[in-house]
Specification:
Helices cover about 50% and strands about 15% of the residues. With about 800 residues, the chain is α+β, with helices and mostly antiparallel strands. Strands 11, 12, 13, 14, 15, 16, 17, 18, 19, 20, 21 and 22 form a twelve-stranded mixed beta sheet that branches. A six-stranded mixed beta barrel has the order 2-3-8-5-7-6. It is elongated.
């Protein structure tokens, strides 16, 4: 123990002798370990951490790319034999919570009565509901999420058993779920039971996601095989076309939950590993320089009897002390990095609220620190052989070729990995530029939006009266040019779809009808958001309840569903959108990119709100000034009409557009940050290599210049030292970037993974800045005074 303490003191003393180098090494390690700790914690929370249910690996998602109806759930409960039960979740139901201090809109999930039992989920307090809650006429009940319980009910345990008001109806609170519980929507505020009512439009409407629990001893593959057969049988029983079950499959619930983020997280994890490799190479370079400069010291120690093992052990202890301190700082930085990532990632990212650094992440970070100690100790050990140390004491003898070659290889590796990171960041930068040049189909300036929930209404007449009073009130506000409403705001990520039946057109047997998304709008919506009218007319006040049903379609609807025909005057049926009645097409409007800027516009049609009442909808106001300044006046105008109206999602439309690109922007920011760190480390490494070479060859340079070498010759000679390793590094990095770029195909837009601009400009610029890093110390060498050098 005494020897270890003594060697630790010697190591600390040695590190204090070169404070600049020590601080640079610690900063390098802190950045790399911090980045890896944060990104691994994110990957662990989103991809690796078990779902918060008992035996979560037994949970399966049935038909993850398809929404099912209540009648299909009943069919699967009866015919699917390899599972312990089938449940459903219908996410995204917006409800108005009133009777609290300020009315709020909450996001609810309608769930089957057996969902909580199937998941094995236990409430924090109270009891969850069961299958009896699905019956027609059952008492309305609700289960609260932990965040809603805290924010709206002050964590009062007495709320269990009491009634709350949702959309004007009374629901009894039966339970509160524990912190972190979620099913499909990580932002869900509450859960209430669906009703198995064969007379309801929801009974045959596909609005839910299906889940099942494996029977003990049953595998997921068995369930998948049986489900495909049962889905075919179910389609035939319900009169569906032959293609109905073509995409039927069953996958693990965890795979379904994490699937949308898997490739993005793995991409960021790979970037973090690259940063770690660059940091290790940089740290090894710094320690190699330090070891080379101490050769005389080590040679003297060797001549006094110190064995090579003692010297290597001392170097390893110094590296361990350095890495331990730097690694601890890195783990501390990781906590801040995770908090930053939680804010940066989109709010709808699955399990994003679970992000945090646990013992697993700390253990992995500790392992990375130990790995770093082992790797950075190799290079110094290679230059401390007995022969080299003995040669160091011979007059005029230097042995720098091995260490210079090792440093060069490390620099080449840094440059190669940095090129990969910069190529990735450039692909994302070009993607963002392409997205920003895309026409979304609506005007993105001076538009205010807010979601409104007339939850006080007891029927459609109340909703109609509310909007007939409110819209003129909003239109009369100072600075408002147009006011309207829409069911789902463009770029908001939500849409409702309907099967389309065209009057007079008979589909061949077995062919599924075309589908289109639909909107319910009111007032001057098209003018307010800036969607152009291409032909026909828009809605007027005459298109009210009791009048003939009318719709407006977009250009994609006209071209894909009604090709070669003039849509004006044709009639269609669109399920719930037209209440099963025929509606006449009266106009065609421009296409809107509804899902995201990277998704082509889909067929879409619009119905007037007065003919198709929707409770929760979004107000759209066009102003002649900054829309954010209008928010307070608009909110007060709404509450003057009715104080019990929840208002949420108050955004300028350009903020909505920005939020739709949040995922790609997060990737760009992270890759850009990693590329910047990698570039800085790589350039410092090249600069240090050339500067060290100039210092080691100072006498040689003086002799060359005294024999007639011009400063330009010395400048070229020393610049070539950096170029010798930068060139192969850039070439290797470009090749590696090309091989790995295909993994970015799902997040780039408007360019190919082998984008010519990226893969010509990045290598050229990297080579240019590498030469620039070599030029500075080379220029200093070219200004050497040979007389002064040779006098030393």
């Amino acid at each position: 123990m005494f020897d270890i303490l003594r060697e630790l003191r010697l190591a600390a003393r040695a590190l204090r002798r070169r404070p600049g180098l020590t601080m640079a090494a610690m900063a390098t390690l802190a950045l790399t370990i911090g980045a890896n700790t944060a990104v691994f914690s994110t990957a662990h929370s989103l991809l690796l951490k078990p779902l918060p249910f008992p035996e979560a690996d037994r949970m399966m998602a049935l038909w993850p790319d398809h929404f099912v109806s209540n009648r299909e759930i009943e069919f699967l409960r009866r015919d699917l034999r390899s599972v312990d039960g089938v449940a459903s979740v219908s996410p995204g139901w917006l409800m108005g919570l009133t009777g609290v201090e300020t009315p709020v809109e909450v996001s609810a999930e309608r769930v089957s009565g057996n969902l909580f039992e199937l998941l094995g989920a236990r409430p924090l307090m109270g009891r969850t509901f069961g299958l009896a809650a699905e019956r027609v006429g059952a008492e309305p009940v609700v289960v609260l999420s932990h965040p809603l319980w805290r924010s709206q009910f002050a964590s009062d345990p007495a709320v269990v058993g009491k009634s709350i008001t949702l959309n004007g109806d009374s629901y009894q609170v039966t339970a509160v779920m524990p912190r972190g519980f979620s099913v499909v929507d990580s932002e869900a505020d509450l859960w209430y039971p669906l009703t198995m009512d064969p007379t309801s439009s929801f009974y045959a409407g596909s609005v839910a996601m299906a889940f099942a629990r494996l029977l003990p001893g049953t595998t997921g593959e068995q369930v998948d095989r049986e489900f495909r057969v049962v889905a075919q049988r179910m389609g035939a029983a319900h009169g569906q076309p032959a293609t109905y079950a073509a995409d039927a499959r069953a996958i693990g619930l965890k795979e379904q939950t994490t699937g949308p983020m898997r490739q993005t997280v793995l991409l960021l994890l790979a970037a973090a590993v690259f940063i770690l490799a660059i940091g290790i190479a940089n740290l090894a370079n710094l320690l190699l320089v330090r070891t080379t400069e101490r050769r005389t010291e080590f040679a003297v120690r060797a001549s006094l009897g110190a064995g090579r093992g003692a010297i290597v052990r001392q170097l390893t202890i110094e590296a361990a002390l350095l890495c331990g301190i730097g690694g601890a700082l890195g783990i501390a930085l990781g906590f801040g990095g995770v908090a930053w990532l939680r804010r940066m990632l989109p709010a709808d990212t699955p399990r994003v609220q679970e992000l945090g650094i646990g013992w697993t992440a700390i253990a992995v970070s500790a392992g990375l620190i130990i790995l770093t100690v082992a790797l950075v100790s190799i290079a110094p050990a290679l230059v401390t052989s007995a022969r080299q140390l003995a040669g160091q004491l011979r007059a005029g003898r230097t042995t720098t070729s091995a260490s210079s070659r090792t440093r060069g290889i490390l620099i080449m590796s840094q440059v190669a990995l940095t090129v990969v990171l910069i190529c990735g960041a450039t692909l994302m930068l070009r993607t963002m530029a392409k997205l920003q040049s895309v026409d979304p189909g609506f005007r993105t300036e001076r538009v205010l939006t807010m979601r409104v929930q007339p939850s006080f209404a007891t029927g459609e007449a109340d909703v109609r009266a509310f909007w007939r009073t409110l819209l003129p009130t909003l239109a009369a506000l100072p600075g408002v040019d147009a006011a309207g409403t829409v069911l789902h705001l463009p770029m908001g990520g939500r849409r409702w779809n309907a099967a389309i039946e065209v009057e007079g057109r008979q589909l061949p047997a077995g062919v599924a009808p075309p589908r289109a998304s639909w909107q319910s709008v009111d007032g001057e919506y098209f003018e307010a958001i800036g969607i152009p009218l291409l032909s026909g007319r828009a809605f007027t006040e005459a298109d009210r309840e009791g009048a003939p049903r009318v719709i407006v379609v977009n250009d994609a609807f006209a071209r894909r569903i009604l090709p070669g025909r003039d849509p004006i005057g044709l009639r269609i049926r669109g399920g719930n959108a037209t209440d099963g009645e025929w509606a006449t097409i009266i106009g065609i409007v421009g296409n809107v990119r509804h899902d995201s800027l990277s998704v082509e516009p889909a067929p879409e049609f619009y119905a007037p709100l007065m003919q198709n009442i929707i409770y929760a909808t979004t107000i759209v106001l066009r102003t002649n000034h900054d829309p954010r300044l209008l928010a307070t006046a608009a909110r007060e105008a709404i509450w003057r009409v009715n104080r019990n109206v929840p208002i949420s999602n108050v955004y300028a439309i350009d903020d909505v557009l920005r939020l739709s690109m949040l995922k790609r922007r997060a990737i760009l920011n992270l890759l850009g940050m990693f590329a910047g760190v990698g570039l800085a480390l790589g350039l410092v490494g090249i600069y240090g290599l050339v500067a060290y070479t100039v210092r080691q060859r100072k006498r040689e340079i003086g002799i060359r210049m005294s024999l007639g070498a011009a400063p330009h010759d010395v400048l070229v000679l020393m610049t070539a030292v950096g170029a010798r390793w930068a060139l192969p590094g850039v070439a290797a990095g470009s090749l590696l970037a090309m091989l790995t770029s295909r993994y970015m195909a799902s997040v780039i837009f408007g360019i190919t993974p082998l984008d010519a601009v990226t893969f010509t400009t990045v290598p050229a610029l990297m080579l240019l800045v590498s030469l620039g890093a070599s030029y500075v110390p080379a220029r200093r060498a070219a200004n050497t005074n040979p007389a002064l050098v040779l006098q030393d």
